[in-house]
Amino acid sequence: MTISVGDKLPDATMVTIGENGPEPVELSAKLAGRKVVMFGLPGAYTTGCSTVHLPSFIRTVDQFRDKGVDEVICVSVNDPFVLDAWGRETGAKDAGITFLADVDGSLTRALDMAFSAPQFGLYGRSGRYAVVADDGVVTLAHIDEPGVCDASTGESLLEAM
């Protein structure tokens, strides 16, 4: 499956850090009956993700809410501890962005977004994308070319809504 308008996002068991540590999150349950923005990126603390991609959603999260979005979710093939720390350190969690770890990369592979860049130590990571989904059905999809971060930014997605 590639990410296309009209497709239902596949179910996957994601992981987040809750009050008592790691907690599983069934993606289908999280999306059910809700309008969400979900964006995927290569990894916490990586340069483009930390300086461009995540900050774009920190800047726009309130504008997405104004457009009826219930939740903005960041997905990465990382462990949940790293994503949680990154979210806290960047202020993204305080801004209201949810972080879901695709710990085994199954969602990323199902979306046909997996890539590896061995020269940077990245294996089975996610390419950059951003989608709007209503009740789990994609209504808007922006996918970046490898090595680029422009179509999948918060501003680009917001402008297209």
Describe the protein's topology.
Blueprint: E1 13-18, E2 21-26, H1 27-31, E3 35-41, H2 47-66, E4 71-76, H3 80-90, H4 92-95, E5 97-101, H5 106-110, E6 114-117, E7 122-126, E8 129-134, E9 137-143, H6 154-160
SS-derived structural category: alpha/beta
Strand order of the largest sheet: 5-4-3-8-9
Q: Major β-sheet, in short?
A: 5 strands, mixed
Radius of gyration: 14 Å
Shape, per Cα inertia axes: globular
DSSP helical segment count: 6
Assembly category: single chain
DSSP strand (E) fraction? 25-35%
Task: Encode the helix/strand succession as letters.
Answer: EEHEHEHHEHEEEEH
In total, the number of strands is 9
Q: Helicity, in percent?
A: 25-40%
Low-confidence stretches: none
Please state the average pLDDT score: 93
Distance between the termini: 23 Å
Task: Give a description of the structure.
This protein has 161 residues and is of the alpha/beta class. It is 32% helix and 32% strand. The protein is built from 6 helices and 9 strands, in the order ββαβαβααβαββββα. The strands form 3 sheets. The chain has a 5-stranded mixed β-sheet with strand order 5-4-3-8-9. 40% of the residues are buried.
